[in-house]
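In the laboratory, one determines a bound structure by crystallizing the protein with its ligand and collecting diffraction data. In a computational setting the workflow is compressed into a single prediction: the sequence and the ligand go in, and a structural description comes out. We illustrate the idea with zinc ion.
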Amino acid sequence: MKYAFVGGTRVQAEPKLSGICPSCKSEVISKCGKHVIWHWAHRSRSSCDPWWENETAWHRGWKNRFPAEWQEITHQDPVSRDRHIADVKTSHGVVVEFQRSTIDPVEVTAREQFYKRMVWVIDGTRSELDSSTFNISRGTLREDGLAQLKWWGRSRLFHR
Ligand SMILES: [Zn+2]
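The predicted complex, in structure-token form:
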């Protein structure tokens, strides 16, 4: 996670800090190494959100395109009390999820039903092959700025 609470303030990870997870309120510790992007991790190893994907520079770069107060927003279903951390939730309540690894279609549906108003941003440049296939698979842009994607490459993520 990019953010945790330290002394009541929502802050980014810095070396040798501990904080509180904004979602489950359990203790998190800063992980500030050379190889992995600086982040917060639950002390108990297991994340509180089974949908959480390990963050890469790609995830962080996308999140950073949005205001800090929209990033990593805990969303709770009022009935089931299920709780998940949206990568981005806009002030209008639209959730944006950044997906880099392959994901089971059952989970895709579960997330869409949970967040209701959401869009996916999928990494189409993860491998060189994906990148070129993405451009070939994408139809021409329509007047409204959208294009159809008919995937035929080997990427399981796009196939799903
Ligand atoms: Zn947590």
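Helices lie at 57-63, 105-115, 128-137, 156-159. Keep in mind that any predicted model is a hypothesis to be tested, not a measurement.
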